[in-house]
Amino acid sequence: MNDVGLLYRYRLAWLIAGTIIYYLSAHLAMSTFSLGPDNIALVWLPSGIGLVMVKCYGWRALPFIFIASYGANLPGMDALGSVTSYFHTAISAGANTLESFVAYQLLRRYLPHDLKRFTDIIPFLLAVCLIPTAINASILTPNLIWGGYITVAEALPLWGMLILTNSLGILIVYPLSTAFNRIEPVDSGQLLRCLSLFIICLGMVWLAFSMFRGFIFLLFPALLFLAVQGRRETVYITLALTISFIVVLAAQHPGPFAMADAGSTRLLLLAYLYTITISVLGSELHQRDLMSETSAKKSWRYKANHDPLTGLGNRLLFMPLLENEMKRAERMERPFSLALIDIDNFKQINDQYGHMSGDSILQEFSQLLLNSLRDIDVAARMGGDEFAVLFPESPATEAENALKRLREKVEELDIRVKDTQITFTISVGLAEFSPDRFDSADSLLSQVDQLLYEAKRRGRDRIHL
């Protein structure tokens, strides 16, 4: 019961925090992100915040979104002093709440895996950003006409502006929220690079508004470079702050976006903001696709070349290494040795103690083998209970000494199954490479295999050269 109560208080605290953030971002948009003469907010961040709240807390978030939207919209809608302003404010708050709910439902339907791939951009833009905001705008616009806040002639431009500004808020906020789902350790070099690019971006924006408008186009390569080189959270934080900085400066003076009239200025600015937002989002997602593909290829290659039980390389990995070592030894006229190791009576151990015990022995022996070798030596599991070891630049005498030490360590192994100690021995076939004796890796391996067979025939638990 205490756990349930704690969870309830935890959710309530975050919902209240989300409500406050929604309310403050709405006030910020109306006071700072609006462009005259009719003070239309250029970016409506609450649309994205509402979507995140519904995603995190489901239907429980809807009343909180309604309250935050109502509180943020009431001062502006009550400015006319009409007794119906409370009613029209409630309709506006309901439309904003509906927008967040519909956006989440469409997100679940069309992007059940969330926004993770480059191909997700189009469904995210159309289904999650444009459709819910169009529904919201289709409710808000008639409501504003009904309340006498706008004229019919102003309705269509306002309807389009609401869609653009609200959807831009979703485009900015939602990817930023997903970036914090999994935070990786911070690399100081990468963090410094991201911080430098962030400062460069803000500097270019300031120069574009204060000196030469062409600097606004130099923002593209800086943001795109950050998108492919930076951490996800720093990419989207930089994007959000850069856009906010542009809008704040544009609200004071249109700068590089100045056109003949305010409507054209707003459209040009929104087109620019949309372009850089979608470009950065697409670049970051595409980079993530490439990294996932590269990681998957590495994983597949590793699995194809390594034994899943012991982690050692397998025959597929070992044979090319052996061939390369033969060529190198022939060219450098330096010796190397090859050993095949077999665990004695492994089948009987499996039959007596079970396959899980047999697997434990293989794992313990593999770890012991790795710990007993030099860094330049190569060990592999060739199959079953047979292992191969490549000793570069080592004559057979040196390799034999290393294998003797390995046999001694095997005797000291303490493997227990149900309080029963399992002991085992190993047999080894060992040969030194000579170019005049072996013309291929298979011929060398075949010779060492015969030596291993001879070691087992002579009573096992021995090294045969």
UniProtKB/TrEMBL annotation:
Give this protein's Gene Ontology molecular function annotations: diguanylate cyclase activity
Keywords of the record: Cell membrane, Coiled coil, Membrane, Transmembrane, Transmembrane helix
Q: Does the keyword NAD apply?
A: no
Q: Pfam families under this entry?
A: GGDEF, MASE1
| Domain (GGDEF): residue spans on this chain | 334-465
What domain of life does the UniProt record list for this protein's source? Bacteria
Q: How does it sit in the membrane?
A: Multi-pass membrane protein
Q: What is this protein called?
A: diguanylate cyclase
Native source organism of the sequence: Pseudidiomarina salinarum
Lineage of producing organism: Bacteria, Pseudomonadati, Pseudomonadota, Gammaproteobacteria, Alteromonadales
